[in-house]
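Section 3.1: Structural characterization of target chains.
Under the original work plan, the team committed to producing a structural model for every single-chain target entering the pipeline before any wet-lab resources were allocated. The record below documents one such target. The sequence was received from the expression subgroup and is listed exactly as submitted; it comprises 305 residues.
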Amino acid sequence: MSDTIYPIGTANISWNDDEKQQWFDSQNIKRSYHNDVVSLINELTDECDVEQYGELVYQDANYPLFAIKSRNWQNNKPTVLVTGGVHGYETSGVHGAIRFIKTLGRHYSEHFNLVVTPCISPWGYETINRWNPAAIDPNRSFYANSPAPESANVMAYIAGLGVELVAHIDLHETTDTDNSEFRPALAARDGKINTNWNIPDGFYLVADSAKPAAEFQKAIIENVTKITHIAPSDENNQLIGVPQEQFGVINYAARELGLCMGFSDAKFVTTTEVYPDSPTATDEECILAQVAAIAGALDYIASQQ
């Protein structure tokens, strides 16, 4: 695919602080985290425990960070973490996490302790961005002494719970703007040459190459198939430039790359990828696909107990 030249910076030279500031100054608020997300979280307080685990202050705006926990918490139950909005622009991840706990939380809390952090990057949600204001990708920043407060806050919160996670499902999207905006911006920031990848048309999963859990991934794919189509591989049997491990699944070195799904020692981990720009998908279908992914994951784990 053809390359896209980014308007900020000089070819082959990584951005300095002035260029990062230029990028930040070009951003603007497009939607409301408080109206779209916090309002829905507040509706859950009758059935769930809602905890504020941090706050971000960007552009003179305050962004409280919330976790939603199932109420009938018991230490003898396995604990599952669901994260959304690590990349704030990936809308169905945010709303899929909330929809899951709203519609299926009571059912699955009979078997699991549930922890849901639906919007880890609220500034990214409002500005429809992959990065935070410092031009840092939170989903490459899940490691000790993280430079991204979005990542650092949620890692500290989960560590403070003092529980072992059995599973972590991280909800994401792959969009056409990956090629039109985010990959060109990344190449410009790092002083590299951009080469766009083929955007998969459909749902797929990214597993952790250190613990791929193939049957777990397969169970998720099978459940999501009931809602939406699974992305076929390209002519090289790849998805986003990575060899397909099984139908609809690729593997990444999660911890080495600083990915959200890699920060814990959970046995079962996955990153969902919904394609909202498909001509056959709707916003609602994308949300339901995220819910189906979580349900498929938990049904599989429950069957193994």
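Residues 212 and 257 are 15 Å apart (CA to CA).
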